[in-house]
Amino acid sequence: MSNTETKDVPYKPTSPNSKLDFASVWEYAPAPQDSDFAEVKEKYDLFIDGKFVKPSKGRYFKSTNPANEEVITEFAEATQKDVDKAVKAARKAFEGEWSRISAKERGKYIYRIARMIQERAREFAILESMDGGKPIRESRDVDIPLVAAYFFYYAGWADKLEYAFPGKQPEPLGVCGQIIPWNFPLLMLAWKIAPALATGNTVVLKPAETTSLTALKFAELVKDCGLPDGVVNIVTGAGQTGAEIVNHKDVDKIAFTGSTKVGKLIQSSLAGTDKKYTLELGGKGAMLIFEDAPIDQAVEGIINAIYFNQGHVCCAGSRLLVQEGIADKVIQKLKDRLATLIVGDPLDKNTDVGAINSKEQFETVNKYLELGVEEGADIYQCDCKVPDNGYFIRPTLFTNVSQSNRIVQEEIFGPVLTVQTFRTAEEGIEKTNNTPYGLANGVWTDKGSKIFKVGSKMRSGVIWANTYNKFDPTSPFGGYKESGVGREGGMHGLAAYIKN
Ligand code: NAP
Ligand code: MG
After folding, report:
1. Which residues have a Cβ under 8 Å from the Cβ of 277 and sit 6 or more positions away?
2. Which fold, 22-30+283-465?
3. Do residues 307 and 461 lie in contact, with contact meaning Cβ atoms separated by under 8 Å?
4. How confident is residue 383, by pLDDT bands cut at 50, 70 and 90?
5. Could you tell me if the CB of 384 is within 6 A of ligand 1?
6. What is the CATH number of domain 35-281+483-495?
7. Whose CA is nearest to atom 48 of ligand 1?
8. Which one from 209, 280, 482, 488 is the annotated catalytic residue?
9. What is the pLDDT of residues 255-310, one digit of tens each?
10. Tens digit of each residue's pLDDT (9 = 90 or more) over 28-45
């Protein structure tokens, strides 16, 4: 329906209690983000020692746009030889020019990176949405501003490390191997590179196979900002390229963000070596909504907690635990809100929920939807329109689930919420903690003392109160149990990059 047509159709409720019929009455006109100015090359080489270089075996792999299944570009596949070259470049820079630069100058480089990201923010946002499927509203308003914020924050620490670690002479570790996932490509790069550079290390980073584009755009920015050669090296490739970094003898630290399965593999490869490591792994966050909670705000918070970035969020609030007395009300309000979400083109400024990141993940989430039904849960999906092409899944909620169901215990990493009830705070806490993970949880209540009482018993690195999915560079982030080891962000994030 076009704009002119909607003008002629004033909204008329059919009965005093009728709900707004968004689908037929209030359709938004398309508002596509102009993407022509975001330059994408046909092919990207590896970024080693300040130059773009061809991969040793000459192999490239395709990267697609998950919203339309079209090939965007090709990335180079880095072999062991290429990784070795990158590590050597990082070592040379660490022992050479980078170590001779004063901490103040180091900070200036990081500030420059932050400012250049702000200058090119729109281009980064567009490419992030094209390559990974996330709505432009999120990449523009959340991802890229946070990327700049992390670089600004750590730039400030570069010449103040003695204050961060009083009584110590903080020394960098050396060459850091960094491996990141596909859900927040540039943001995870920032979480890794900013603290490593602020503390005087050099890095070899591998982005995820399906979302390497913004990392290579970042490499162009690194070149433009004049950072000494070899301080930042970007090698693209599959899991094997990541394994070559992990197993390289001259790497001093591994910083990994990804699945618990690969995290465990990495941990066993590192056993017996003196490499330091941080592992930021999976999660299955719970949100406890008490009867005294401000329900409308809580519903808005739940929507953001699970459907933000299509639910591809390690700390997503993927389990809702609602106190029995308000369960029906909360579920109805959630269903009403789901009906208003716009699923579709990530580059449309109206889109709330974009495309699932890859075909593989699309299949995984669909398997969990089938599994939930097999396990006896009731599935609810809004009947919103979804595009014919591309990997789209309607925001989903499952009710009538039990604690032992696999959809309650396992990380789905998609727009899928399970809903359970509880009677007492003790029962809520017990259910919250009863998964193998412990990354993030949330609590909604009007009572401050309840937040502290319940929060102190939740076993997770992050606890949000009356909000969810809020990030800040000053705040540490990390997991308990199978959600990982170590912390990133804030001063804790600096500690992970200096010698004890
Ligand atoms: P993944 O399969 O573990 O992959 C993560 C990264 O590791 C990718 O770059 C991947 O390369 C690489 N990799 C794969 N196999 C490897 C190996 N044997 N050795 C070294 N590197 C290897 O995870 P994902 O599917 O990309 O990401 C989703 C997961 O990340 C979820 O479980 C999510 O919870 C977690 N995550 C955690 C946090 C946190 O802070 N705790 C934040 C974001 C995401 P390829 O891309 O080529 O496979
Ligand atoms: Mg892609």
Report:
1. 253, 254, 255, 256, 266, 267, 270, 485, 486
2. Aldehyde Dehydrogenase; Chain A, domain 2 (3.40.309)
3. no
4. confident
5. no
6. 3.40.605.10
7. 239
8. 280
9. 999 999 999 999 999 999 999 999 999 999 999 999 999 999 999 999 999 999 99
10. 889 999 888 899 999 999
